[in-house]
Specification:
78% of the residues lie in helices and 3% in strands. β1 and β2 form a beta hairpin. The chain is mainly alpha-helical and 325 residues long. The chain is built from 15 helices and two strands. The protein is rod-shaped. The chain starts with a helix and ends with a helix. It has a two-stranded antiparallel ribbon with strand order 1-2.
């Protein structure tokens, strides 16, 4: 935009200068036609006689010739720089076309062709980061994980400030290849350098879910809420689910104290959730702690009637059936 504006301004100034010069030439010509004048130049034994109009014309012609000669030599002096600039523009255009074609082939599923296109003129690219990230995706689709990691390293080396972009791409590709431990290490590192990055937190959340790492997910949840990575309803559903999973894990170990500890770590506002109460009391019933389960169920049913809780309450043993009825 600025270059075009500058060129338009230069063209306008040149046209104005030409118009002024033509007007001056016309005025001077009219004056000299009416009164051509007389000029005598003497130097020792040498003398020159001519009309003023012819002398002015000769001076103007000489000035124009001198100007053209000077412009010619100035152009020769700047020729290497202009040639270099032209060559850079040509190479940049060629690299841009290769990037566009490579991205098209990547979208079409031509992984091998896309990889070759993306790397063909990467040295002349204005933004090699895009080339290397896309080439890493193409290599991933071909199962060439060493080449993928090599391209990611080149991307980071070329643009060190793009840690987040390179790291997120690396984590996505590692997850797609089921390299969960490597993806966890990548995302953990990204969280240390960008603790407030919403997408990093979201990817870490999804990875914890896939790994069923409910303890770390529980620790991450307050940050997910604080950064508005999840809506309030989504965060509540996730919190209920993870505490249900933690209760189930404790019950599978048949460790009553571990189960009680998992229940005690449920936030107070979720202690009245019928689904969590049902999960906890079902595990108590499985471990033979019907008396404790009866106390929890009776308190929950007084707060809110729930058919699932009633069904479990009716199947408890070890307490006075008539009293429960």
């Amino acid at each position: 935009g600025r270059d075009r504006t500058g060129r338009r301004g230069g063209t306008m100034r040149f046209l104005i200068a030409v118009i002024v010069a033509l007007l001056a030439a016309v005025v001077l010509g009219l004056v000299l036609v009416r009164e051509p004048g007389y000029v005598l130049i003497a130097l020792g034994d040498w003398s020159l006689e001519t009309t003023l109009s012819l002398l002015v014309f000769a001076l103007l012609l000489g000035f124009a010739a001198l100007y053209m000669v000077l412009r010619f030599f100035a152009g020769l002096r700047r020729a290497p720089q202009r040639l270099q600039h032209w060559d850079r523009r040509r190479k940049a255009l060629r690299a841009r076309n290769a990037l566009n074609r490579g991205l098209i082939e990547l979208s079409e599923g031509n992984w091998s062709g896309a990889e070759k296109r993306l790397l063909k003129h990467v040295g002349d690219s204005d933004n090699p980061l895009l080339n290397y990230l896309a080439a890493a995706r193409a290599a991933q689709q071909q199962g060439a994980h060493e080449r993928r990691d090599h391209y990611l390293r080149l991307a980071h080396r070329g643009v060190p400030a793009a840690d987040i972009a390179v790291g997120l791409t690396q984590a996505e590709l590692q997850i797609a290849h089921r390299q969960m431990e490597q993806a966890l290490a990548t995302l953990t590192h990204l969280r240390t350098i960008a603790p407030r990055h919403g997408y990093v937190l979201k990817m870490l959340m999804r990875l914890y879910e896939r790994l069923q790492d409910w303890e770390h997910l529980r620790d991450l949840l307050p940050e997910l809420r604080r950064r508005s990575v999840l809506s309030v309803d989504e965060a509540d559903r996730l919190e209920i689910r993870l505490h249900g999973e933690l209760l189930a894990r404790a019950a599978r170990g048949r460790d009553l104290e571990h189960l009680r500890d998992a229940w005690n770590r449920v936030p107070r506002r979720l202690l009245h959730d019928a689904g969590l109460v049902l999960a906890y009391t079902t595990h108590l019933h499985t471990l033979g702690e019907d008396d404790e389960a009866e106390i929890q169920l009776r308190a929950a049913l007084k707060r809110d009637w729930d058919d699932r809780l009633v069904d479990l309450y009716g199947r408890l043993g070890g307490t006075d059936a008539a009293l429960r009825l």
